[in-house]
């Protein structure tokens, strides 16, 4: 088994867990020797040990487990010191703190050591003021706490440095081990490849001799096939020459027909372009007409709104006139009452009667004027209603015209799209015809080249027959040399 840093920490954690559980009977023995009936220190030690075990089961040797074990061990030692309160051995139990810090260095991690030192310092400092007897025999002093703190700091510094060095050494060892394993694996793979290569070379040599043995017969058959192929190539080249001559004549006819087709398509393209331009002009005119109809409809709608506002204003004026009529009627009643009171007053109320008569006359005139205004407002409302109805009829008519104009514009647009598509297709046809003409020209050139190639093929077939004889001789010589080797 390889002792990596993780393995070492696992072994140290297991050993310290065993020590934590051994502290439980040790705590019980200390309580029993002192003759104390309080077993809470024993229960506290057991709870700490169980918490460390559960943390180890949950997290393994992670940093949280190492810190919890440090906390548990320092806490258990503190309980032992407390259990020996008032006993001459209490100062001696303090040395167990230093032993625990040294044991924590086995984790090769400075953090549990620092945590144990901090817990020890806090324990001594706090209990020095809260419960001195729980820390030092026959009481303590700040100087004793400081002395212990200095010793703990010195030990912690050395142990933390040792832990860091050990962790780095383990890391370097693991890295070297990995490199050694990689090198050994590469050497093993190289050895296996060399072994397989040697076996393959032996098999290939045997297979090569067998291949050469069959190669001679196969080449003889291939040379016979090559001779027959050369003769067939000569016949095919003669047939190809005749076919290329016929293709050259047909290509000339096709070239003339393609030229006539391109001329007709060119004329059709010009006509379709003119038709598209005319339809586009019609579309623009219809769009302008539709825009004018929409503008007239908007104006009519705004006029309708203004007339509706006028009608509402006339209604408001009618309401005001009605209020004035009511005021005039009330004024007339007041004038009548004033006249009656003046008559009762006799000579003294004569002037007041004249004023009341004038007020009554004015209220009557106001009532007549109000009636005339009310009649004029009624006539104005009637005219407004007729105007509003007429304008709404105009808006409806313009809406129908606008709808028809939109329909016409849509139809013209669709016709324009169709015409554009026709023009596009004509252009594509023209392009296709032009390419066809080019292809015909290329085909004519290829036909000429085919004729030349047929003649070259005839020459190649003759040369191939000659080379086949030479290859037959070379193969025979090669097979003889391989068999001799």
Automatic annotation (TrEMBL):
Domain Methyl-accepting transducer per the UniProt entry, residue ranges: 229-465
InterPro entries the UniProt entry points to: MCPsignal_dom (IPR004089)
Record key words, sorted: Membrane, Transducer, Transmembrane, Transmembrane helix
PROSITE patterns: CHEMOTAXIS_TRANSDUC_2
Residue ranges crossing the lipid bilayer per the database entry: 40-56, 68-87, 117-139, 145-171
GO terms under cellular component: membrane
Signal peptide (UniProt feature, chain positions): none
Protein name in UniProt: Methyl-accepting chemotaxis protein
